[in-house]
Structure formats: C-alpha cells, structure tokens
Amino acid sequence: MRSMSGLDFMFGILNGDISMPPIGQVMNYALAEVAPGKVVFRGAPGFTHCNPMGGVHGGWYGTLLDSCLGCAVMTTVPKGSSYTTLEYKVNLSRAIPVDTEILATAWIDHAGRSTGTAHGEIRGVADGKLYATGSTTCLIMKLPES
C-alpha cells in the first residue's frame, strides 16, 4: 500500500489485483466504480441483515456508507498515506426492502493534508428511490516506514 496512491489502490481492488475487504462479503456489497473523488458500491441487504422486527438493520446502511464515503476519500490520498474515519453521519430516508439491489455513491468534498470529507447516498437500482444519505470526516495520515 505504501507504494501506490489511494486512487491506484482503489483501482487495484476494482480490477481484482487487490483483494476486496472481507466486510463486503459479510454485508453483501462490492466496489462497482472508481473515479478520482468518487466511488460506487453495489449490493443488496439480505435476511441476515435484518433486525428483530424484520427490517434491514440501520447498521447495514451505516456500514455501507462508511465504506463508500471512506473509499471516496481514499481516491485522493497520496502515495505512502492512508485514511481512517474520524466520524460519519447517516440519515435514513426510507426502509430498503430485503433483496433490493442498491447503489451507494460517494463524492469527495474536501481532501487536504490531514483531513478529507465526503458525502453520499444510497439509491435503489430499479426504482431510483433515495434510501439514505451520509457524510464523513476522515483523518489522512502517512503510513509508518517499514
């Protein structure tokens, strides 16, 4: 990771040269698109992502948006650096029906030397409905020398 920019790292995941993080398999979403300052994830919540009332757990929305927002910041991180989430906020607009395919899209708002911010949304693929929005602030940091 020290040898490539954040954008190159994200393209490596998209192209399959770098393994997808295991959280994507557990949460049933994957990176679908990468561009400078923008990423898109595609997925669908399943029954295993439901709360006791049978609805998709809010943590699914939050985990997906945290991944998507952070990866948008990662596309701006210079070679030899990485990021970590400092805080994120999620607003749920409506319930996502189980097995509904969605796109989560995030766009960079600011990328500085030490922080990055991004905003994003979750929309249905078939219906285009807005299911959630979110924002993040990330810490950008130099990776330690080996």
From TrEMBL:
Record-annotated Thioesterase domain positions: 53-123
A Pfam family assignment: 4HBT
GO molecular function: fatty acyl-CoA hydrolase activity
Superkingdom of origin: Bacteria
Keyword Nucleotidyltransferase among UniProt keywords: no
UniProtKB keywords: Hydrolase
Family: Belongs to the thioesterase PaaI family.
Name under which the protein is recorded: Uncharacterized protein (TIGR00369 family)
Source organism of this protein record: Yoonia sediminilitoris
